[in-house]
Amino acid sequence: MTTATKKIHVTTTVNGESVEFLCEPRNSLLEVLRDTLGLTGCKEGCNNGNCGACTVIVNKLPVNSCLVFGVEAEGAEIETVEGIADANELHPIQDCFLEGAALQCGICTPGFLVSAKALLEKKPGASEETIRFDLSGNLCRCTGYDKIVRAIQEADKQMSAATVDSTTND
Amino acid sequence: MATTPYRVIGTRPVRHDGADKVTGKAVYTADFKLPGLQAGFVLRSPHPHAKIVSIDTSAAEATAGVSAVVTGADFPNVQDKIAQLGEGSVNLAHLSANCMAKDKVLYKGHAVAAVSATNAHIAEEAAAKIVVEYEMLPSVTDIMEAMADDAPLLHADLFTDDLGQKADTASNVAVHMHFEKGDVAAGFEQADVVVEAEFKTATVHQGYIEPHAIVADYNEDGRVRLWTATQGSFTCRQQTAEILQIGVGDVLVTPCEIGGGFGGKIAVYLEPTAAILSKKAGRPVSILMTRTDVFEATGPTPASFMRVKVGAKNDGTLIAGEAWIAYDAGAFPGGVIGPGCMCVFSCYDIEHAVVDGYDVCVNKPHTKAYRAPGATQVAFAMEQLMDELAEQLDICPLEIRMKNAVKEGSRRVDGPVYPQIGYVECLEALRDSDHWNSPLTGDNRGRGIAGGFWFGCGLKSSAACSVNSDGTINLLEGSTDIGGSRASLAMQLAETLGIESSDINPMVGDTDSVGYTDVTGGSRVTFATGLAAYEAGRDLQSQMKVRAAELWECETNDVSIADDGTFSGNGKTAGFKDLATQLFSSGEALVGRATVAPECPTNGFAAHIVDVEVDPDTGKVTILRYTAIQDAGTAIHPSYVEGQMQGGAVQGIGWALNEEYFFNDDDQMTNASFLDYRMPTMLDVPMIDTIIVETGNADHPYGVRGVGEPPIIPPPPAIGNAIYNATQTRMRELPMSPPKVWQAMQSSD
Ligand code: FES
Ligand code: FES
Fold first, then answer.
1. Cα separation, B459 vs B599, whole angstroms
2. By C-alpha distance, which of B181, B706, B134, B95 is closest to B461?
C-alpha cells in the first residue's frame, strides 16, 4: 500500500560528472533527471515509450528515459541534451538544427538531438533511409520531418569533415 | 532569382530562441518550478455518459502527503454566457463544466475530481481512493445516430438554434446553419453533368507532443498567477477569471514555451482546477496531463458526415453546388461547423450554391479547432468531386480547377467577395512544377492534386520596442511563439528600422506586461503581430524625428527617413543605431508602441501534388513524392514558411491515411496512446517539397498572408485522388487506412 517507499542511493555519471542521488524504486530515470537533478532538457511527451522526447544516452545507447528506472542508473554513464554542447560551442548537430530550421515548437528537439548524435557517432554516412528508420521512435508533430532529416545529413557531413581534418592534422 | 525590395525579409537568420531550444534551456511549463510546488492529478470518468450521484473524497483527503482535493462543488456557479476567445467563442458554463463535471459526465475522461500532493504518485494514488457513484445513462458517439429523434440526449436544455429560431423540443443538434447564393434548383437544371456522394471523416487529434501543463499559484493577495502552455495568454486569463468568478486583473498568465498547439491549446482545461487546488492547499500546484488524458479529454477535431453535390456544364464550368454537412461538437455545443460550411465551396466560383450545416453533440470530448478548423473535412469531399467531374467531362483535373478557381471579385457562398488572392497563381505554380511535369510510372501508382483555402484572421495584437543605449532593441510582444514567430516579428521590425534581425531581442510578454493580444492561431501572428511590430517601429521613428530635429536644430518636418532607415536633416545624416545612441545620451529613453486590430482576412490558398503506391494485397498506401505549393503573400523567413507547409502536409497525411479515434461498444476510446493512435513517424513520409508563391497582400505593409493553416487541407483529397488514379477505387471515408482501402478495392472490383 501507499506508505512512502524507502529511497535508494544511486551513484552515476551524468554528462561526464559524477552524480549521486536518492530515489524511490518506482521513479523513472526521466523523473530523476528532471525533478531531482534539474535536467529538464529531456521532456515527457507520453511517459510510455512512444514519443522519444525523453531520449537520453545510457552507456552509449539511446533509451527512452521514461522506461528506465532511476535505480538502473547505478554505475552507468548518462548523456543528456545539456551535455551535447562543448562549453559555449554548439555541437554541429545543434548548429545544423538551427541553420536548417529543423525545429518549430522545439519540444521534440532535445530527443531528436540526442538520438541523432548517437546515430551519427555509430553510423557516419548513414543513408536517408537509415536515418528515418533509426529515428522513427522520435515523434515530431510540427515539422513534417523534412528539415530534421536534412539537418542530420548536414551535421553528418560536417562531422565527417571534422574527423578528416583532425586526422590530417595529426 | 527574383529581386526583392527587402534587406531582412526573405533571409533565413537563426531564430532568437534557437540556442535555448537546442541546449535544453528553454523553459516549457513542466520545467517551471516554484518553492513548495505540489503535484496534481485529475480523476476522470470511466463512463461516456452518467449522472454523478455522489463523490466521497474523505479517504483521499486523509492520505499522507495530500494537500488538497477538489470536485465540481468547489467550482463557482457560472451562468450561461458567451465569451469571445478571439478565434471562436465559448459558453462559459460549458467551459467550466468541461474543466470539472458537476452533476453529469458527458464523455469518458471527463474530469470529476482532482488531488494535489507532495508528488504526482501520491496524488494519483489518493485520487484512486475517491469514490464516485455514477448512474449510467445511454450514450452516443456517432453523428447520425445522435441526430435521430430517439437518440440519448446529452443536454436536456439544448434546443436547436435553427436559423436563429429556437426549437421546442430538446435535441443533440445545437445549431443548424444555412448559406445560399443564386438559385440552386435552376443551377442544377443548367448542369450537363452532376456528381453527388456521401463522405465521412473520423475524429482526429491535434497531437502536439507536449501534454497540457500548468503551474498555478493562488497568492495570498487574491491574485492567481499561472504559468502555462497556451496559444493565447490573454484568452487563458479571461477564461480562468470567468470560471473562478474573479476579475481579469486578478489573474496573471505567464506563457511558457509551448510544445505545439494547432488549435488545441486555446481552451483552458487545467488552469481553473490547479488554481482552486492551490487556493485550498495554500501552495503552488502543477499538473502535467497524461498522454491518455490528452487524447480522451482534450480537443480532438470533429468527425463529419457530408453529402455534397456539384453540377457542371460540358465545358467544365461549375454551375451549382449543394452541401449537407454535420460535424460533431463533442460533449458541448460549439464545434467548427461554421468554417466548414464557409469553406466547402471556397476554392471555386459557383454561381448557384447552398450549404446546410449542423453542430451535433455526442459523448466525446468537446471538439476543438485543429489547423484550418473544419476546412479539411469538406475539402476531402469537394476536391474529390472535382476530380470526378473532370473524369466525366474528360478534362484534366488541373484544368477544371484552373477554369473555376476563385479570383479577385469571386463571391463565396457565405457572402464575402474576395479581394486579390493567389489560388490561380498556386495552380499555375503546380502546372509549372517539376513534380507535375515528371511522369509517374509503375504498377499500382497514382498521382493526385487538391487545393485548399483558409481565411486567416487579423484580431488584436500589441507590441512595444524599447531602445537600448547601443541602439539595439528589445521587442515586447504578446503572441506566444509556437514555431519561430519571434524571428518573423523581429525581422519585420528590423526591416522597418533599417537594422539587423540580430539587433533585436524579441520577447513574449506576460499579461501584466504587454498590451492585449489575441491567440496564436488563425494564421495571424506574422500578419497581425507583425503589423504591430511594424507600427511600433514607425511610432519609434516618428519620436526619433522630433528628437533628431532638436539635436540637429531644425524643424521636425525637415527630418526625413530613407527606406534603409537612415535619418537626415539639416545637412546631417545618421543611421538608426547611430542616432538612437546619440539620443539615448541626450535625453529621455525611447519606447515605440502599437496596438492593431486589422479586420481583414488574409485569404490563404494552397495546392498540393502527391504520388502514391497502393499495395493491392494489404491496401497500404505509401507516399512516394509530395509537393506543397502555397501563397504566403510575402515569406518573411522562408525556412519557417516551408516548415509550416511541410508540417501541415504531414499532419494532413496522417489524417488521410491513419489517424482516428476508435470507440468500443461502450463508447470508450480504445486507442488513447501515441502507439495506437499512430501519427506519422519519420519513416512514414518522404521529403516534402515546397514551392512558395508570393502574391503580396495589400492589407499588410510587407504583403504578409498567414501560412500556418492551409497546408493541412489538401492532403486527404489529394491522396484520395491519387488512390483513385492508382486503383480506380474512390475512397469516401477517412482515414484511408489499409483495411478500408483494401475493402474498397474488393468491392469496386
Ligand atoms: S516520454 Fe518517454 S517516450 Fe514519450
Ligand atoms: S518541433 Fe514541435 S514537435 Fe517537433
1. 6
2. B706
| Sign, Cα dihedral of B710, B711, B714, B720 | negative
Same-domain pairing of B393 and B465: no
Choose among B259, B361, B387, B284: nearest CA to B39: B284
Asked if A50 lies within 8 A of B484 by C-beta distance, the reply is no
Intervals of chain B under pLDDT 50: 1
B185's CB contacts (< 8 A; 6+ apart) are none
A residues 60-89 lying closer than 8 A (beta carbon) to B: 80-82, 84-85
Whether A142 sits inside 8 A of B483 (CB atoms) is: yes
Beta-bridge mates of residue B467 = B473
Q: Give the ligand 2 atom nearest the CA of A141.
A: 3
* B402 and B505 part of one domain: no
The answer to whether residues B299 and B188 belong to one domain is yes
- Confidence label for A167 from pLDDT (cuts 50, 70 and 90): low
The strand order across the sheet containing B572-574 reads B560-561, B567-569, B572-574
Residues with CB under 6 A from ligand 2: A 103-108, 140-143; B 209, 260
CATH class label, A8-83? alpha beta
- In chain B, the number of structural domains is 2
Q: Search chain A and give the residue with CA nearest B262.
A: A142
Q: In this prediction, what percent of chain A has a pLDDT beyond 90?
A: 89
Predicted local confidence at residue A5, as pLDDT = 72
- DSSP 8-state assignment for residue B466: E
Ligand 1 — pocket residues by CB below 6 A? Answer: A 44-47, 49-54, 64, 66
Supply the pLDDT for residue B496: 98
Q: Are residues B488 and B382 in the same domain?
A: no
B213: in domain: yes
Other beta carbons less than 10 A from residue B441's beta carbon: 6
CB–CB contact B65 A4 (8 Å): yes
Tell me the sheet residues that pair with B197: B308
- DSSP string spanning B574-595? E-HHHHHHHHHHTSS--EEEEE
State ipTM.
0.97
Q: Report the nearest atom of ligand 1 relative to the CA of A65.
A: 2
d(CA B470, CA B468): 5
Judged by CB atoms closer than 8 Å, whether chains meet at B674 and A41 is answered as: no
> How is B670-682 classified by DSSP, letter by letter?
S--SHHHH----G
- For the stretch A13-45, pLDDT in tens is 999 999 999 999 999 999 999 999 999 999 999
Chain A / chain B CB contacts < 8 angstroms: 186
On chain B, the residues whose CB falls within 8 A of the CB of A48 are 291, 673-675
C-beta atoms of B291 and A80 within 8 A: no
Residue B449 lies in a domain: no
Whether the Cβ atoms of residue B420 and residue B698 lie closer than 8 Å to each other: yes
Of B19, B64, B649, nearest to A144 by CB-CB distance is: B649
Q: Both B386 and B466 in a single domain?
A: no
- Whether B249 is in a domain gets the answer yes
Q: Is B178 left (phi over 0), alpha (psi -120 to 50) or beta?
A: beta
Q: How many residues does the structure list for chain A?
A: 170
Which pTM does this prediction carry?
A: 0.97
Instruction: Note whether B310 and B194 are within 8 A (CB).
Output: yes
Domain range spanning residue B492? Answer: 18-25+458-596
| Chain A hits for B288, Cβ within 8 Å | 44
- A92-163 CATH: 1.10.150.120
- Closest-CA residue to B381 (of B734, B620, B742): B734
* Model confidence at A170: pLDDT above 50: no
| Tens of pLDDT, residues A80-125 | 999 999 988 999 999 999 999 999 999 999 999 999 999 999 999 9
* Cα–Cα distance, B279 to B75 (Å, whole number): 12
